[in-house]
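As a warm-up, study this chain.
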Amino acid sequence: MQRLPFVLAALAIAAAPAAASDNWPQWRGPHGNGTSDATGLPVRWSATENVIWRTALPSWAAATPIVWGDTVFVTSAEEGSNLNRPNSRLFGGGDDARDRLYLIALDRETGAVRWQQSMGRGNRIGNKQNMASPSPVTDGERVWVVNGNGELRCFDFSGRLLWMRDLQKDYGKFGVQFGYASSPVLHEGVLYLQNLQGMYTDDPSYLLAADGRSGETIWKVERPTDARHETPDSYSTATLAETGGEPLLIVSGAGYVTAHDLKTGRERWRAGGLNPNDATNYRTIASPLVVRDIVLAPSRRRPFIAFRAGGAGDVTDSKRLWSTDYGPDVPTPTSDGERLYIIDDRGVALCLRVRDGSIVWERTRIEPGTYSASPLLADGKIYAISEEGATTVLKAGDEFEILAVNRLDDYTLASPAAAGNRLFIRTAGYLYCIGKP
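Now compare it with the structure written out below.
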């Protein structure tokens, strides 16, 4: 796989040199783009074949497991709350609601649970989501996690709570229709979070930078938009880019992709066109992807637009490179630096050239199903897992080729992770560690 020469690994996590292959420290991995340098990954497996271990989890969640050293972290709702299955809109409360949320640490080699700590209460279900949806992030010493109710916590690797803060208490009610799902981004000891909302509250959308050691606010800025009704809601996660040697925070939602100064939060540039008909239901789920100096911005499937990073002010027209009507709604694409790999919600794969949007291979259906998890690119292969728990393994490159289809037959929303020579897949019932015994 071509290593991206453009900043993502260095910007996203201050990691040891081996981290890019041995660790998966955040939702989209060590490079922040759904790729890993891991090798020797499995091509075929089942619920029993090539399973190093599987560990039962209390309940379901959409959060991706993260991996550092000998520890795997995963979030979960409380046991019993899986009675309110995804796509239900039942909202619980009170002592009998089984509404607790947990961060769980497991031994990487055996799958044994080392500890399980509370990350708050107030679980509720909205469509395919509960309040354990945001993925954790780690620097190898501490692990940070935010729940869908805006409670941000920091633990050490022994499970000791170092600090906690309540963003709703500090800055107003979260108003995202189906519940907050954005994962925190970590860079040089600072956490960056977005809360882009508008469906159910008049509280402003904002970006926040918090000190990783103390949790104290470094800056908070509003992110204005002219979007209406549901369109201001964003379930995406920010990412990082660099222009002129300077790192920037890239945020997508409410019809725009924006770039912000890491030190102050000030908006540097803004690109629109993601909601060309001013629709009121263009909420954002898939996250932006940065490849070198190109920002790839999904919307609600169409349009999917590539912008050249840089400039100042409104760069909608001046920095627009290309667009397609065949983007994803939920899964965030991935790239090897030259090719862009898109898996849409209906299981249709498409490969485009990053530089100009030209077609490498045409839209082709993979294993039928609904796809919410984002694809993983590692070891020359693309792993795309459906909600039905079937993973299609594709050969990365200029020719479309399916290498295998592997079934776990369990509801799956979480994106897979790769570390070392193993895959980590979180289904509704289990966390799987998959590799060659």
